[in-house]
Design a protein that fits this description.
By secondary structure, the chain is of the alpha/beta class. It has helices at about 1-30, 45-65, 85-95, 110-125, 135-140, 150-165, 180-195, 215-220, 235-245, 260-270, 290-300, 310-325, 330-340; strands spanning about 30-40, 75-80, 105, 125-130, 145, 170-175, 200-205, 225-230, 255, 275-280, 345, 350, 365-370, 375-380. Bound molecules: phenylalanine (PHE). The site of phenylalanine has 16 residues, from helix 12.
Length: about 375
């Protein structure tokens, strides 16, 4: 009997000792500061995650090259959300509970940021989204921040662009009902476009990842709009543009930041030429800091130009590290307070001040697809 008991006890005791040792070195005594990143490195929005990761990693490398923060080097732990619903919650849980990260960076897609935000809020681990724009993300709680503008602004920017620049009066709206981002942006766009005296001639839905949009596009064509607003992500937007062209729906198509990917033109080719979208950043304009960032990024990533995702992600990392520095500690509540106090912080995408809602009020840029590239058209201040 006794023998049995000891045999049973031994592995348990050993396991708990091991657990103690690992949690001890993860949470406090370690010689690095662990930052978690969750990003769609694969799947249907892979370019979002890849660009974001490149920006984040570059920031971490630069900070480490100048000595790190609080006398320690940063360690970036990255998890792939695979562009899938359900994954963000799982991987962020892992980063916090298993790896003991002290802050979380991500995601791009609002629906995935929303999933993770709940986990971060419950664990009192500050989360900074680089580029999720749906208002609900930071409404989750006081540990959730973002370094970008939100969709009530982006929707207004594109509604005013439709009215003033496109001279559109009758617009159709085509929404991805699987995406919080798309539904929100559609709503905010409509509100402003109606205020401008415009008319929404029809509203149709799709599900992100669909391949055939012809039925809805036929209905849209029949409503005779002079522009179609498509607040979706790049793969869907490109396929929609191709099928719109095939159906002879030859009016301007326009969307929001979700269009931003080199895949938009790779997939859409001439069907996306001349169309428009709003986003956070253009490497064509900006401060000296932005110019330096473009140069460093090209060097680091084999000549690739940074997009808005990379720039926002870089900014999310430097904002978090600045807060850690000002807090003088990595304790969640103190870093949270320091993040909330971020004011006039010089970043690549512009000056960042975190407001009462834990969002950043920043300018938007409008780009046009021209010869397979994104041409800067204008900057719209908040
Ligand atoms: N704003 C989008 C969202 O909230 C994500 C996105 C940001 C996509 C920047 C492209 C560029 O879902």
């Amino acid at each position: 009997m006794m023998k049995h008991l000891t045999r049973w006890l031994w592995p348990t005791a050993a396991a708990s000792l091991l657990l103690l040792a690992t949690s001890g070195c993860n949470k406090s005594g370690g010689d690095t500061i662990k930052i978690g990143e969750f990003a769609s490195l694969t799947g249907k929005e892979a370019t979002f995650g890849i660009s974001s990761h490149e920006g984040t990693l570059m920031a971490v490398e630069e900070i480490n090259a100048t000595g790190g923060v609080l006398g320690k080097k940063l360690e970036l732990l990255t998890e792939d959300t695979q562009s899938k619903a359900g994954e963000s919650q799982t991987v962020v849980n892992k980063l916090i509970a298993r790896d003991g990260v002290i802050g979380i960076l991500g995601e791009v897609a609002s629906s995935r940021s929303l999933e993770a935000a709940k986990v971060c809020q419950d664990s009192k681990i500050p989360m900074v989204s680089p580029s999720s724009t749906n208002p609900k993300v930071t409404e989750t709680g006081d540990y959730i921040f973002r370094v970008c503008f939100i969709d009530p602004f982006q929707g207004t920017v594109m509604a005013n662009f439709a009215t003033k620049s496109l001279k559109a009066t009758k617009v159709a709206v085509f929404t991805d009902v699987k995406s919080d981002y798309s539904k929100g942006l559609a709503k905010f766009f409509k509100e402003q476009f109606l205020k401008n005296g415009g008319q929404i001639v029809t509203e149709l839905d799709f599900n992100g990842g669909d391949k055939d949009f012809k039925a809805q596009l036929t209905a849209i064509k029949a409503a005779n709009p002079d522009g179609v607003f498509i607040p979706g992500y790049y793969t869907d937007a490109a396929l929609i543009a191709i099928q719109a062209k095939q159906l002879g729906l030859n009016v301007p198509l326009f969307g929001g930041d979700g269009w931003e990917s080199e895949k938009l033109t790779e997939i859409g080719k001439d069907a996306v030429e001349g169309h428009y979208f709003s986003t956070h950043y253009s490497p064509e304009v900006g401060s000296d800091m932005s110019k330096q960032f473009v140069e460093n990024y090209r060097k680091r990533w084999n000549g690739k130009s940074p997009d808005a995702l990379a720039a926002c992600a870089y900014d999310s990392a430097i904002v978090l590290v600045d807060a850690i520095k000002r807090a003088g500690t990595t304790e969640g509540p103190k870093v949270r307070d320091a993040l909330a106090a971020t004011k006039d912080f010089k970043a690549v995408t512009g000056k960042i001040t975190i407001n009462e809602q834990r969002d950043a009020s920043k300018a938007a840029v409008i780009l046009q697809v021209k010869d397979g590239k994104f041409k800067y058209l204008e900057t719209v201040e908040p």
